[in-house]
Write a structure and sequence with these properties.
alpha+beta; Arc Repressor Mutant, subunit A; 5-stranded antiparallel sheet; 4-stranded antiparallel sheet; 11 strands; 36% helix
Length: 291
């Protein structure tokens, strides 16, 4: 490891946390020698870690009792997945921890996420639904001016908006939290369906449906890079790279409104090839707008 890496605040904090979580007791002078910094620098590092560290009577530092054995790289990976940045960091445990901590210090990373709606996870509705999901309790609520009885499965943040994934009369649907009112969590419980759980996990959007329509599209060379860089369409797959640099791309959708706004955004560089009815619908929409 290079000297510059040893001097990195993120590298030192990651190393200290990993040692502590393994049950090691740490001496300031030993750490200073290992990382090639002064004892004063190590003291500052320890102060940054705050209440997660206790000092014993012998002067050595240990992880506070309530945290011992509980800090894992997997926990941090789950956190990164929750906020949608897990693919931005290295896969190996120690390197992941270094990279994630680096974002909290003098970072070489800058992650710009989605613009999130005003609803916060500590809002009363959020907390009620979280409890109902954990305890498998049915709930009633008003949505789109209709009273509904639901079996709640998951709270999902998709593109900065919070949704409730729940079954309505046995059908999996999504409900925007900001449009939910008159929520009441009942006392009766339900047995969650493993198939429903799997469907939620496998879908990459909140348009839940067992029946999906495959859409075939052509992508012009001018914008092919963006579609190769990341998936811009629901369940996107690149079927073929053309000699001119263009792409043939497939997408699977549950509803026409899942893809039509995206295609409109990329006009004239993206065209629908199949199915014919969706291609015609887009054409009529454009003509109607032009008139």
């Amino acid at each position: 490891m290079t000297t510059s890496a040893h001097d990195s605040l993120a590298y030192r904090l990651a190393g200290i946390l990993l040692k502590l979580n393994q049950g090691d007791s740490l001496d300031v002078d030993d750490l200073a020698a290992e990382y090639g910094v002064s004892g004063r620098t190590i003291y500052r590092d320890i102060n940054r870690l705050g209440g997660v560290i206790d000092q014993d009577t012998d002067g050595r530092y240990r992880l506070a009792a309530e945290y011992r054995g509980k800090l894992s790289t997997r926990d941090l990976e789950n956190f990164a997945k929750l906020v949608g940045v897990e693919d931005l960091f290295p896969q190996s445990g120690a390197r992941f921890l270094v990279a994630l901590l680096d974002t909290l210090s003098q970072s070489s990373f800058l992650v710009r996420g989605h613009h999130y709606e005003a609803l916060k996870p500590h809002d009363e509705t959020f907390q009620q639904l979280d409890r109902a999901i954990r305890e498998h309790q049915r709930c009633t609520l008003t949505y789109a001016d209709k009273r509904r009885e639901l079996e709640p499965y998951r709270l999902i943040n998709s593109k900065g908006i919070w949704y409730l994934a729940a079954t309505d009369a046995g059908t999996l649907k999504s409900f925007a939290l900001s449009r939910i009112s008159q929520l009441n969590v009942g006392d009766d419980s339900f047995a969650p369906s493993a198939d429903i759980q799997r469907q939620i996990d496998e879908d990459d959007d909140v348009w839940f449906s067992q029946e999906k329509t495959e859409v075939l599209l052509s992508v012009a060379p001018q914008v092919a890079y963006y579609f190769k860089r990341r998936k811009l369409l629901p369940l996107q797959e690149i079927d073929k790279e053309l000699e001119n640099g263009g792409l043939i791309v497939s997408s699977r959708i549950s509803d026409k409104n899942q893809i039509l706004p995206l295609v409109r955004y990329w006009i004239p560089h993206v065209r629908i090839l199949e199915p014919g009815w969706l291609k015609e619908l887009l054409k009529q929409d454009i003509l109607s707008y032009a008139e």
